């Protein structure tokens, strides 16, 4: 289905500025998108579960044409979920080397 939307093109009022802007249609289009938000939400939910070629195959069954590379780009653009739970207050390292190629002695052995 193709929907034609007519939006106004606005010009920057600053002198000698040639930048133009378009009206945003809230709830229909996001910035720099060529599709409406509904298919984009469907893509994100499918690609989140099945990344790459599997996601592209499932989307083609839903009549949304998307390549596996575009599916991965969609996955990378998906915002990370908010952190749940507590943040650790102390981090520790068990074994480390102060100098390169220097290994600490193993427990229970002599130097």
Summarize, please.
This protein has 111 residues and is mainly alpha-helical. The chain has helices at 37-49, 53-61, 68-77; strands at 9-11, 20-22.
Can you give keywords for this protein?
two-stranded antiparallel sheet; extended; 111 residues; mainly alpha
What does this structure look like?
By secondary structure, the chain is mainly α. The protein has helices at residues 37-49, 53-61, 68-77; strands at residues 9-11, 20-22. The chain has a domain at 9-77. It has three helices and two strands, in the order ββααα. Helix 1 packs across helix 3. The mean pLDDT is 77.
SSE blueprint and pairings:
Elements: E1 9-11, E2 20-22, H1 37-49, H2 53-61, H3 68-77
Antiparallel strand pairs: 1-2
Helix pairs in contact: 1-2, 1-3
Order of secondary-structure elements: EEHHH
* Gyration radius from CA atoms, angstroms: 25 Å
Broad shape: extended
The largest β sheet comes out as: 2 strands, antiparallel
């Amino acid at each position: 289905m193709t929907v034609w939307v007519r939006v106004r093109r606005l010009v920057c009022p600053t002198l000698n500025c040639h930048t133009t802007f378009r009206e945003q249609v809230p709830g229909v289009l996001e910035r720099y998108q060529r599709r409406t938000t509904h298919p984009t939400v469907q893509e994100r939910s499918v690609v989140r579960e099945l990344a790459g070629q599997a996601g592209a195959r499932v989307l083609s069954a839903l009549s949304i044409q998307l390549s596996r590379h575009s599916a991965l780009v969609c996955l990378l653009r998906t915002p990370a979920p908010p952190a749940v739970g507590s943040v650790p207050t102390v981090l520790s390292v068990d074994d480390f080397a102060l100098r390169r190629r220097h290994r600490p002695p193993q427990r229970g052995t002599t130097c």
